[in-house]
Amino acid sequence: MMRNCCCCFLFLYLGKVNLHGIAGSSCRDTDENVLKMHVSFFDRNQDGTIYPWETFRGFRAIGCGYLLSSFAALFINMGLSRKTRPGKFPSLLFPIDVKNIHKAKHRSDSGVYDSQGRFVASKFEEIFSKHARKNASALTSEELKGMLKANREPKDYIGWLASYTEWKILYVLCKDKNGLLQRDTIRAVYDGSLFEQMSKAKTSSRKNA
Hints:
Blueprint: H1 7-14, H2 34-40, E1 49-50, H3 52-61, H4 66-80, E2 96-97, H5 121-131, E3 138-139, H6 141-151, H7 157-174, E4 181-182, H8 183-191, H9 193-208
Antiparallel strand pairs: 1-2, 3-4
Helix pairs in contact: 1-7, 3-4, 6-7
């Protein structure tokens, strides 16, 4: 579950962050590994490898408590380490190779990340062109359910569960006062820019305390 990213635990915290005005980068195809950008915030020393203590520090940087940060570090690194290190002997340090993060991508997803972790603008647009009915730039709870059902691959039960968990928690904690999950919030999660925004928000609140 949650194989392609750290989202589950991040979303547990997002409800504490004011997301209004946070926008992702422009929606266009790119040869850059955007999934790599999504997780590189947690590569604290930018050496291409994420160890559990770096994951812990990343979660602390966005304002998560010690318990959640510790659990996230263990869960995420233990779950992703082997998938991102094909052909290598398992390590008890559970490192994640950032360059191979796309190898941990689960099925039954939106397809916004392709098999190489690149951002596919047409797939991102399809989230709204196919499923947004009440508002062209946002999803309601029912529209989100419809999208998840449409994305399901036959008998991919783990993928179904992973996608449902990611999106459901995101919706519950990040919907606006009208019950809409806004396009900019979704885009900022995909490219990882939301994490930097959260870190800056925490630093700012600390200075103003």
